[in-house]
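Narrative summary of target 7.
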Amino acid sequence: MSGTGQVNRYARPVPATATGDQPSPPGTRAGPLRSLLDRFGHLIHEMSKFATVGGIAFVVDFALFNYATTGLGIEPLTAKAVSTVIAASVAFVGNRFWTWRHRERSNPAREYLLFFFFNAVGLGIGLACLAISRYGLGAVWPEVFQTPLADNLASYIVGTGLGTLFRFWSYRRFVFVAAGTRDTTRKDPGR
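Modeled conformation, tokenized:
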């Protein structure tokens, strides 16, 4: 600004340090990306741990399912149910003691029952995908949809994908509650 109250359009911008603002430390990103990381960083951290535990449980589920169907000759839906229950036990331990270890602990029986209830819903999602593929689409194109490849794609790609989204939301929301959530609702009798 000049002394006459007019804005000088040709003046160079003043550096942030001259105005008293502190510049961002070297190596940090300011702006929308940094804001998103600050806001959702904890969620990304939880999701990466959840994905790791889920990956281990997936390998257990996948190996048991394929061994039961090809090695033991068990019907695919029965094999999927058994492999999922065993993999869910592995996932419960990993999620309770690693993914959400920082969250408030409630009654272990409550957590275990809710975990398996929501896991049963996730199992239902996976079984529905497998049943639609094998028995629904397989009735129309048996040479395509009644094969081990089709069973694995329906069960592990589609079913596991949809089931995982549901499980992450439900475990985070209902099973492994955030620290202080339960105490806050108990202290406020007006709710």
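The chain has one domain: 42-177.
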